[in-house]
């Protein structure tokens, strides 16, 4: 596309064009900002996972000889608290922050559709299949971190029970079922990029409809 030609064809004044481009640049800056916050959440999750592994190592070290409860119970408690922390960070990342990222993305997309002289970056990302990416794929990171802790907790539970072999198989089967349910619920709550975009457009249509109906009543 010849952006210079489209720019010259526009009937807007130079001040209006400058204002539109400034808002467009702010939208891109917003995408970068919220995406940076998401990266911080994932770094925090990685740090939490490493801290839990270190805590488990400490429980079985010589320095923890006077630990008041069974060490395996301590391992299970640490893993459960870690799963809770990672899950919380994951939902903050993929439910709250992701919506803010996609909201800025959608607004930038609208600007590019309305003003053809703007760089068609977001349109190319969407139609080229290289857009911001699916939150479902990002969720695999948090699912992987939590799965590691589920497996460690399951191993500790099996050792703690001193059960016969068939009971151990039942415990491991229960752990696998929990991991599967956790993964399904996590991915279902986070959703897909296209679905979030569709929700935002539907919400905007409803809001515009309410505004029109309120004006007509007046």
Keywords:
single chain; 218 residues; mainly alpha; 7 helices; elongated
Describe the structure.
It is built from seven helices and no strands. The protein has helices at residues 3-9, 14-59, 71-114, 121-127, 135-161, 165-190, 193-217. The chain is elongated. The two termini are 45 Å apart.
**Through-space gap between termini:** 45 Å
Average residue pLDDT = 80
**In total, how many beta strands?**
0
Which range best describes the helical content: under 10%, 10-25%, 25-40%, 40-55%, 55-70% or over 70%? over 70%
What is the general shape? elongated
Please write the string of helix (H) and strand (E) elements: HHHHHHH
The stretches of 5 or more residues where confidence is low (pLDDT under 50) are none
Into how many domains do the coordinates divide? 1
Proportion of residues in β-strands = under 5%
Radius of gyration: 25 Å
Helical element count?
Answer: 7
Sheet/helix structural class: mainly alpha
The major sheet is characterized as: none
